[in-house]
Amino acid sequence: MKKTIGLASATMLALSVFMAGCSGNSGNNGSNGNAEVKESSGTGNTASNVGQAEPEKHDPVTLKYTFWGSPNEKKVQEAAIKSFTEKYPWIKVNTLHIPDSYTTKLTTMASSNQMPDIGLLNGDVALEWASQGRIYNIMDFLANDPDVSINDILPNTLYYWEEGKLAGVNGALEAFALFYNKDAFTEAGVPLPPTKADEAYTWDQFVETAQKLTLDQKGRNALDTEFDPKAIKQFGITMPLWAYMNGVVSNGGQFVNETGTEFKLSDPEAAEAIQRWADLINKYHVAPSPTQSKNIPSGANALSSRKVAMTLDGQWSLVDLGAAKKLNFGIGVAPVMKNKATMTLGEPIVIFKDTKHPEEAWMLYKWMMNPENTLELQTSGLWMPVLKKWYENEELVAKWAAGNPAHPDGYQDAIMRNAFENGFPNTSYYVKNLSKVNSIIDPALEQVWLGKTTAQEALSKIKTQVEKELKGVYTER
Amino acid sequence: MITGRKLWNKEARAGILFASPVIAGFIIFVLGPMIASFTFSLSEYNVITPLKFIGFQNYANLFDGTDPLFYKSLGVTAYYVILSVPLQILLAFMVALLLNHPIRGKTFFRTIFYMPTIVPAVASSMIWLWLFDPDLGLLNQLLKVFGISGLQWIYSENLAVPSLVLMSLWTIGGTMVIFLAGLQGIPRHLYESVEVDGGTWFHKLFFITIPLMTPTIFFNLVMGFIGSFQVFGQAYIMTQGGPNNATLFYSYYLYREAFEFSSMGSASAIAWVMFLIILVLTLMVFKTSALWVYSESEGKR
Questions:
Q1: Is residue B118 less than 8 Å (CB to CB) from chain A?
Q2: Taking residues B27-46, what's their average pLDDT?
Q3: What is this model's ipTM?
Q4: Do residue A302 and residue A393 come from a single domain?
Q5: Residue A232 and residue A108 share a domain
């Protein structure tokens, strides 16, 4: 029982909504910041006096850049920004790393007029804010830029809030693939998974492979008649259940119709795909249930501890896999139901309307878009580039997707080319009111993953409820 | 007369001056936000776009079922309150009775029972997540001995709320201490007179202890009501409102509306409805209190 101060606390709760709006995040823009600006512009002047004769004289500009991410991402992004300020010494960039509750914090900053100039933003939030006029149209910058054009950028990294109105380009592209422990395959005498999309496992082959790799305490696999599903030592496969669209699209299904007015997950193809995922858990016992997953370490540790043999996961897990010392891992292409498909995702960087320096913000934007400046994030396996030429030009590909522990053989086929050729955008790129819609879908699917109900039944039941919250799409995908 | 008024004025001024931190605090942190929150509740507001007045639409959306989760979360919360408050009071009272006896190691046991209360909510949630784990959790391992297996605890729609109630019984230490204080305030001579009359422990309990404890029970009941209505941490940390919204407690529902869906308008409306519900319920408890709470100062009613 909570010890609270009675009625007053009931009121306080009502107020907390407001309070959050008041407590501004007075991060980096104190007098300190100003002092540093002077300092850095000072060195800039000396540099231009001594060295290259710079005809233009720039007024000092300070930008605020907000982002989230792991300590590693923080380090590399800050390094990238440092090299940016070295190249353009009159621009000072204050970085503000917000590891969690990002949207909440930014909303708070918006309410107290302390918005950053440029920053990462969740895709669905970016689209919503853009349609409310709080974010610049990146197309306007691209149109007048000699260095980058819209055709240089991967379509699946673009967040359009209306036709021709671009809220942002992803910081990075991500896609899904199979990651596995090679030893688990060798010991079970199972050939390694294919890496080319054309040779991908069919669903049945995939289930069978997973069965062979699922072992109980006595070492029997899931095809054995004596197999004990209550005492599983090594699961064949785990997958992030929120990424179910991987299955749905591969099976020819959709989330909503083109105009975003009709809920399509309850259609037979989509429901069948989701059922197949659930069957991995409840029928074949080759994947952990949501409750069992809580006891399984994530990503690299799951594979190296042999709790699971394969994971269907986002390519960002490479950063851990590559760093894992004693893990002999491999990459395979995601299984195919009917169509080759891998969900691509990523969150956009946006330029906020509040900025007083859109020109400089765009300079930083371009800087972050170029893998040359953030190469460590690409080579470590965390990010994939957003510019097309980094997939097409052999020389550029070699710079990030080869010759390092995070990008072993098979990477280029199983992830890079598959994402480039068969990637489809996840729902946050186009569905309006997505968080509300998902708040209805997720509890329903939870029942499916737990085996309480069939996918068809659960999804048909919520169809009308979801359609009440569907507000269309930003652009047709 | 005039000097008296002057004096009063002077005193009043000094009084207000001394009370001013509290008054200012109240205006800034309670009254102001309340007014703001009420204004929000009459508008559509997502922080990043200007406020748009829509009258009582937010309230209408709640009550006419446009928001399907309002009644669900009310129901879930009511279920939790009805289940947890009586159990907490009963258990805390019984433990307090036991610990009020002159037994050996009394202080030790009091400490043990109080300790969970000072454990931070996040830490105790983590502990209970492990205890509740269907596969490896201690609870299921224990039940296995009795041939019961496979309870899903917080992962089951039916058991989720009872599980959290069970967990809440772990932190009755605060209530228990208040009961203990109450028990020690009962004059010994009353018990002695029961003994003289040949009464047993049963008579002592029902004719002395419980009647004299009613004010304490009343206090704990009100606090329990308010605390349980605002249960949040468990839903936020352990279940995220699931499974299938079975633990979508009202506070968590409010939080989600405000900070996940950025609808400050409807979140404020939800908060005001909660405020009114708790107010009405508390008033009801107060009204009925005259019937069963013994009050020494007012004598018999």
A1: no
A2: 93
A3: 0.74
A4: no
A5: no
